Amino acid sequence: MENGSIQVLDRAFCILEALCKSRNGMSIQQLCEETGMNKSTVHRLLHSMMKWNYVRRAIDAPIYCAGMRICELGEEIQSNFDIIAAARPILDRLSEQVGATVHLANWEDGKITYIYKAENRASSVCMTSRVGIRRPMYCTSVGKAILSTLPDSEIERIWDSREVQVFTPFTITKKSVLMEELCRSRQCGYALDNEENELGICCIGTAIPDRKSRPAYAISISLPVSMAREDRRLSMIEPLLSAKKEISALLGTL
Questions:
Q1: Considering the entire predicted model, what is its pTM?
Q2: Which one-letter DSSP state was computed for residue 138?
Q3: pLDDT tens readout for residues 69-116
Q4: In this structure, are residues 238 and 190 in contact, taking their beta carbons and an 8 Å threshold?
Q5: How far apart are CA 31 and CA 20, in angstroms?
């Protein structure tokens, strides 16, 4: 045991994460190279995880993949999230109303995680965002919306605690610039992402408090730059804030 962790669990999770990130599965040798573990350890852990259906072996090759039990648990987690159950029909309707992709994200450990995505069926734009992906708060509209509700001291702590990642030429890399943006967001109730997380994509986001009045969640509308004329973006603000109000009412946080 080291730093409160249990070695066998650390190793099992390391293997499981490697398999979850692998598109076509991995051999034992590949897992050894990826994790730095020896073959006997990898083989033993794979055998245990296969018994619980967290790992499966390909029928025609010695290749291992993440098992469907991961998906089953993911479904259980999502179904137990009050915010997802409450927000899903509202966000689906919002997506249809504005003709764009809508996201729901939560805030944890200085980053946001997308926990629901409503893609508009008429949109031909394929975004890289997906449920489960994590991003820094300073380069997304949902992250900046949440940051704008926090005291300056907490914003600075979050900024200073992490190395700034640059995703596009438009990613904010200076704290002073971020603070100016957040000041504007506080005044209008929403935040903008102008190609800061993904080139060609603009987003408008607003924060939603949890039952403890903490800004734990945020929703956003995302659309391609080619369709993000100022008049269209402005027309989306009212539906976005209306959806926020509906979700907040269902959560009892109004």
A1: 0.69
A2: G
A3: 888 887 676 555 578 888 899 999 999 999 899 999 999 888 999 999
A4: no
A5: 12
